[in-house]
Each structure stands twice: as structure tokens, then as C-alpha cells.
Description:
The protein is mainly α. The protein has helices at residues 2-42, 70-85, 87-110, 118-125, 144-149, 164-182, 185-194, 196-206, 218-235, 267-272, 278-284; strands spanning 59-60, 63-64, 255-260, 301-306. It folds into two domains: 59-248, Lysozyme (Orthogonal Bundle), CATH 1.10.530.10; 255-306. A hairpin with a 2-residue loop joins β1 and β2. The longest helix has 41 residues, at 2-42. The chain is globular, with a radius of gyration of 30 Å.
Amino acid sequence: MKILKSLLMILGVFVVICSLIFAAQSVTDDTRDTAENDIEKNVSEGYRISAIDIPENLNFAGEIVPQEDPEIMERIDREFLVNTYWQSNALLLMKRAHKYFPIIEPILAKNGIPDDFKYLAVAESGLDNVVSHAGATGFWQIMKATGKQYGLEINSNVDERYHIEKATEVACRYLKKYKAKYGNWTLTAATYNAGTGSIDRYLRTQKVDDYYDLLLGQETGRYVFRIMAIKEILSHPEKYGFDVEKEDFYSAVPTFQVEVNKPVLNFADFAQEYEINYKILKRHNPWLREPHLNNTSGKKYTISIPNKGYYKVSN
């Protein structure tokens, strides 16, 4: 009898162990199936990631890039990969470019600045009125001292670094100055990013006279290549896998100009006179930094007002 009981106990333990092993295997199988299903759900059928075919004869502002240099090609390839496969950002830049390039392009042309420099503004700010940690502001990332030096009004009421037309004019003057100094547009672009003091020091200590021969810091070393990658992707979006239709782009709202030569006590009230609200007024005049304008000197300001019918404003 004792032997029979012992056998039954052993058999019971064996059954329990088998059950536990079976249950564990089932959990493992379920986990594996779930993981496989997640992979199938997270990767679209037919989606592939490939290397980028770098165009031959790349140039910046008509100046040829030394693509026979393998180190240069690695740096170019990096910027093409980063900017092509950051799809959301590239698409956003395309949309904004359609809205703002028509404002920037004629100002560059009028000042004799190569059209490629519109892509420098894209690289600087993403065509957004951002402020850097150092205080550089607006589409062209102009520092306060530089803006004042070149005639922009910058105070608590008004900051013309946010005025796209005026800021572009200042950028042109800056670029022309350093093109005259360095003799080529590539070093001029690098100087826009790093500053003339840094570029002069690099040239002097490394005893070269060309951007592509310089060992630069991370940001400036990537800068011109990033501009070229942005230029190529925005110029030929379909080549890099972007399916964008004309109606997908952002467009500028037509405006008319109102001259003001006296103080404005409240821009919310001012906006209502033109059947818009304060938010819309600021959207078209980001250089107005406060809800009022002191203007004790009687200076004449030109404020952009959107044409009627483009915005629906609640009463």
C-alpha cells in the first residue's frame, strides 16, 4: 500500500511538472507570435531603406565640390541620408519653401546673391522664426548686435529680425561683405555659420585657403554639405521618394499694406478695424513684439493686413 501511494505521488508530481512546462511553452509561443505580428504591423509591406545615389557634379553657388575625395563623399553621403530619411522634416521644409521662397528669391537676385543661399536660410532656421540658445533670431538667425549694426530696429516693441524682407536684405549685405573678403561663396557660407573670427583662425592655423581643406568643428564642417543636400532634395523631391502634389504645399495669403506713424495703444483693437484678430495680425507681422506700439518718434511703419475673405473671424 505504501509503495502504491508513493507511486501515485510521484505520478502526480510528474503531471504537475509537465503541465507547467506546457504552459511555459505556450506563453513563449504566444510571445513569439505577438512579436512577429508586431513586426508585421510596424513595417509596411514593400517598405525598404536603401543607400542614396549621390548626384555627380554637385556644386554650391556654382562652385564645384571635390567629389573625388572619399572623405568629402562620406560627409556628403551623411547629409543626404540624414535629410532624406528624416521624411517628416523634409516634407515640412518643402511645404514652407513653397510659401517663403517667392519672398526670398527676388531679394537675393536684386542683391547679386546666388539663388542657392535660400537653402542656407532653410538650414539655419527651417524657415521658421526660431531663436537659438545664443540668441540668433528669425529665418536668417541674426544676432542682436549684427542686426543693429546693419540697421535693423530691435527693441521691446519691434524686432525686425522677424521681418522676412528686411532680414533677408541684411543677410545679403553680410554675404556680399564676406564674398569680397574670401573670394568664394563656399567660405562665405561657412562664415555665416561660424563667424569670420573662427574661419580666419582656422585658415591661419591650418595654412589652407579652401573650405574643403579645413578641419572644422562638427556644425560648420557639416554646414555646406547640409545645404547642398537640402537643395537637391527640395529641388527633386520625387527622386528621393516624396510624392507631393501642388495642393499639398503652403501658400502665402495675399496682403495689403497699412502705414502707421503714431502710437498704437492696442493691436487687438487695431486688428478688429480690419476684420481680423490679434493672432492673425501677428501671423503676418511677427516683428511686432508687443500688443502695442510706443512710436513716440512718429516713425512710419508698414503693417501687412490680409485681404478679406481668407480668414473666418468670430465676432
